[in-house]
Design goal:
The chain has three helices and 14 strands. By secondary structure, the protein is mainly β. It has two domains: about 5-115, Double Stranded RNA Binding Domain (2-Layer Sandwich); about 155-320, Porin, CATH 2.40.160. The longest helix is centred in the first third of the chain and has 16 residues, at about 5-20.
């Protein structure tokens, strides 16, 4: 026989010897986390309703202590029955729902007081609904704030360019190699640039052992649009070149002649480090000025080609 059942029977036997209805002193507590559990008055009413009489007497020798509280992540009901002769019985109940825990505790209290009672399920009354106060909406008129326009930062940048270039048709119809130096100003996706280019002397062999030697120097202005790594540009160039013929009968030299061209360029700029890009591009151009090398009689020996194409590969460094 368990201590709880033995203590309950002892309580009943002592109570029956003295009076027909067992009496106990009830001490009911709701600890932290159990504030919303049924009150002492609700617990007393549930026990009285189950037994058919009130077993509670503040002068009774037997003490029944009930405490509801939070135990880690669940609720606990601890029920302690202390008899007048010092015998103690203890029981603990656990549940996640506060009202269900209190109903189980009420049933245990009934059976502790009168083990022969047949109370059936105990259902505690639901708490009264909390009145809802309807507050009329408050409509506040807020004046419109003045519209402010936020201007995005200009995102300016300056970079320097060094590139090796090769071209066909800029001066003579053979490949020519050169060096390009440039500076570029970046405004968001728009890139404006100035480039100085010089081609090393090139030589075109003609029929009969004749040849044409040219040297080209150009200054170019570029306007480009950049998207991710891809750059597309319009190019305008102006400069001078010198042309000399050899192997002709009394050829005429062209020491310094103006040279102009317009064209388009498309390229890639691939980042290779902090502030550095490898720049590669292909370009096509059409000369706006053409020069003809003649002999002493005025016969044409050589004329600037109608179209030119070029490749370039270099390194650009961001200055700021």
């Amino acid at each position: 026989m368990t201590p709880w059942r033995a203590s309950s029977i002892c309580l009943v036997l002592v109570a029956c010897a003295a009076r027909a209805e067992p009496q106990v002193r009830l001490v009911y507590e709701r600890g932290p986390g159990a504030e919303a559990c049924p009150s002492e008055e609700e617990m007393r009413s549930a026990v009285v309703g189950a037994l058919g009489y009130s077993p509670f007497d503040d002068g009774a020798e037997d003490l029944l202590r009930v405490r509801l509280g939070l135990d880690q992540l669940r609720l606990r009901a601890r029920i302690v029955l202390v008899h007048g002769d010092g015998d103690v019985g203890t029981k603990e109940l656990f549940d996640q729902d506060c009202r269900a825990l209190a109903e189980h505790a009420a049933l245990d209290i009934v059976l502790s007081i009168d083990p022969f009672a047949d109370p059936g399920p105990i259902v505690l009354p639901l708490p009264p609904p909390v009145p809802v106060q309807v507050v009329p909406p408050i409509i506040a008129v807020v004046p419109d704030e003045p519209t402010t326009t936020t201007t995005a930062p200009l995102q300016l940048g300056l970079s320097a360019l060094v590139a090796l270039n090769g071209a066909i048709g800029t001066a003579v119809g053979v490949p020519a190699a050169g060096l390009t130096l440039g500076a570029r100003l970046r405004l968001r996706s728009l890139v404006l640039g100035l480039e100085a280019r010089g081609d090393w002397p090139s030589n075109q062999k003609l029929a009969g052992g004749a040849a044409v030697d040219t040297t080209l120097v150009l200054l170019s202005a570029t306007a480009c649009l950049r998207s991710w790594w891809v750059v597309g540009c319009g190019v305008g160039s102006g400069g001078v070149f010198a042309a000399n013929g050899s192997g002709f009968e009394d050829p005429r030299a062209v020491p310094l002649s103006p040279h102009g061209a317009v064209g388009a360029r498309i390229g890639l700029e691939v980042p290779v480090g902090s502030g550095f890009h490898v720049v590669g591009a292909v370009e096509g151009s059409v000369p706006v000025t053409r020069v003809t090398l003649t002999d002493i009689a005025g016969a044409a020996l050589w004329t600037t080609p109608r179209m030119a194409a070029g490749l370039s590969l270099g390194l650009a460094a961001e200055l700021w």
